Amino acid sequence: MTPVDLHCHSNHSDGLLPARDVVRKAFDRGCQLFALTDHDETRGLAEAEDEARQLGMKFINGVEISVSWGKHILHIVGLGFDRHNEALLAGLASVRSGRGERAERMAAELDKVGIHGTLEGARQYADNPEILSRAHFARHLVKTGVCKDMGSVFKRYLVRGKPGFVEHEWARLHEAIEWITGAGGVAVLAHPARYEMGNETLRVLLTEYKRLGGEAIEVVSGCHGIPDAARFGRLAQEFGFLASCGTDYHATGEGAREPGLNPDLPMDCQPVWHRWLPPETMPSSISAG
Length: 289
Ligand code: AMP
Ligand code: MN
Ligand code: MN
Ligand code: MN
What we know:
- The structure is a single chain.
- By secondary structure, the chain is of the alpha/beta class.
- Strands 1, 2, 3, 4, 5, 6, 7 and 8 form an 8-stranded mixed sheet that branches.
- It is built from 11 helices and 8 strands.
- The longest helix has 14 residues, at 99-112.
- Strand 3 (58-69) and strand 4 form a beta hairpin.
- The mean pLDDT is 96.
- Adenosine monophosphate binds at residues 14, 39, 66, 133-135, 150-151, 154, 250.
């Protein structure tokens, strides 16, 4: 296992726990380098950094930016940026500002199929009123017995073609990458196995992402199986991307993994975290990533 987690959520976006608690959970499992990556939001970073400093764990700034790429929704994680950078903050504020109106349209669509009161319901789960996410709708629909778990809610109601899904314009890919790199950070394509696209489209994406300044992709992710990690490890090498790892932790019981540790990268991948955690500072068994 690798004691690095570069993708986690707190209740500043659609995670359930305060940022401090997520940091402590990661540290308790042996994590040495941690990034909090809330959706389109940086307001939890100061709190997370403070907790990490008290615990003696390395911390870097993170964010997960929602992007529209043609008909696809992509997530671009930014790591190690200056969290006071004005262009980045303005960009993230613009992405957040669309979420309220989108949530109203989602609730209106769910009304049409006889599921009422979901906007108010979802709001009760959102500790940050600027980040109303499909995950908050899903928690409400599980709580009210409409579906048995989050996965079923998404399958039946919240993905494209289902009654509660609405189209929305997120950031453009070049904008997200520019905001991150302009603030001195590294762009990481999050959980690439999750995007429903054929191999050819994926290669077009990786080529464009690289041309626009994308430096890294997630190879090991809480959303990836072992075959996904092997596949994206090979693609990282072929395209010359650094490799990242993150649990994508949101809440205990909701996803596959607890925060803090990740399976090792496939052989020959170049870890993106070596710039913050140089290999000579790590035990030899994990220095290769
Ligand atoms: P949004 O940013 O509002 O579109 O919401 C996306 C979030 O919904 C993701 O970051 C996940 O937290 C959650 N999500 C997406 N798909 C699923 C799924 N199939 N099961 C559970 N949660 C999901
Ligand atoms: Mn999420
Ligand atoms: Mn994501
Ligand atoms: Mn995530």
